Amino acid sequence: MATGFHAGELAAQRSAGLAAAGARMARTIRSSMPTPLIGFLADQSWIHLSGADAAQHIWASTLLGDAGLIEVVDDTTLHLPYPAADDPLRDLDAGSEVGLLAIDLTRRRRARINGTVHPDTDGIRVHVDQCYANCPKYIQSRPHRPAVGTDPVVPTTRTDTAHLTEADIELLDRADTAVLATIAPGFGADCSHRGGMPGFLQCSPDGTVIRFDDHPGNAMFNSLGNLELDDRAGLTVPDFDTGALLQITGRATVRYATPDERTVEITVGHVVHRTGVLPWRYGPVEYSPASIAVTSDH
Predict the structure, then answer these.
(1) What is the total count of domains within the chain?
(2) CA dihedral for 207, 213, 218, 221, sign (positive or negative)
(3) CB 167 within 8 A of CB 175
(4) What is the SS3 assignment for 198?
(5) 3-state percent breakdown (helix, strand, coil) of the chain, nearest 5
(6) Whose CA is closest to 67, among 37, 49, 47?
(7) Within a domain: residue 2?
(8) Helix (H) or strand (E) run with residue 11 in it
(9) Cα–Cα distance measured from residue 232 to residue 218, given in angstroms and rounded to the nearest whole number
(10) Confidence band (pLDDT; 50, 70, 90) for 150?
């Protein structure tokens, strides 16, 4: 895979009037991991993974553990644990295109990696095709600690539905963090962070459509560019209050009111609600200045 942009990304950059900015950002994309990125990954205890299941539906998954969860084999190879047994991406095929998002909610740091899955006996081995750091925009900061014996024990369950339930809609209404999964077959999968003040994720009353504004970012338009070529998408929303994870797959459309005003609209195809996923307990949220600013502008 080349380290530049594919036709969909270039089209999205032009639609937003940011082709020149995108061209400048292309120089930051690398095909091997630099030393600072390797050090950052070694410290992380969770990473988001995007890809397609056996039915070719796109999902965003969350891998969790202790620091060192991500093993850097060399500057082009990562080793990750398998997703949980009840995760939609548990059984990734060799050769699958995946996107990775490593994010540190405490320090507001993140990095993205696109790659290809290779067979391994005790996890997922990913060959790095593209990698780059992202800015801290829209990342809400949350202190966290491991669960202890005095914390309530939440059983692990999985519920599947064809649309969002009332409880799912309530979670979307108060959510400030989400992960978006997209893919452009032959060019790679992407896993990106989406953040905002509570209410930034808007849901139709019948639980079939989710909308959110696409705010100014790094001008790469990886996710929106993928949607120019393939409308499959996944959205995952963590519940920091209960430790649950809401995973959604569907079809997405990008609507441009003006070059500066864009909305992503996801028609829900399938929903997985998993309880007892996040192993940590979270402290008070500190909202990103960027999240506060875009809310004030509307």
Answers:
(1) 1
(2) positive
(3) no
(4) coil
(5) 20, 40, 40
(6) 47
(7) no
(8) helix 7-15
(9) 22
(10) low
For residue 217, being part of any structural domain is answered with yes
DSSP H or E segment with residue 77: strand 77-80
Mean pLDDT, the chain, as a whole number?
Answer: 92
Q: Is 209 among the domain residues? A: yes
Name residue, tokens 């988001």: 48
* CATH code: domain of residue 196: 2.30.110.10
Read off the pLDDT band of 87 (50, 70, 90): very high
Torsion of CA 56, 244, 44, 141, to 10 degrees: 120
In the numeric block, the tokens 């937003």 are attached to 16
Note whether residue 1 is domain-resident: no
Bridge partners, 280 (sequence order): 146
Per-residue model confidence (pLDDT) at position 297: 62
Which residues span the domain enclosing 123? 7-297
For every residue of 109-162, DSSP letters joined together read EEEEEEEEEE--SSSEEEEEEEEEEE--TTPPB--EEE--TTSPP---EEEEES
Residue 127 has pLDDT above 60, yes or no: yes
pLDDT tier at 235 (50, 70, 90 boundaries)?
A: very high
- Per-residue pLDDT at 1: 54
Contact 248, 217 (CB under 8 A): no
252, 210 Cβ separation under 8 angstroms: no
Residue labelled with tokens 């509570």? 198
With tokens 């120019």, the residue in question is 228
**pTM of the entire structure?**
0.94
Distance CA 217, CA 75 (A): 27
What amino acid occupies position 118?
Answer: H
Q: For residue 154, what pLDDT is reported?
A: 80
Judge whether residue 3 has pLDDT over 80: no
pLDDT at residue 226 in the model: 97
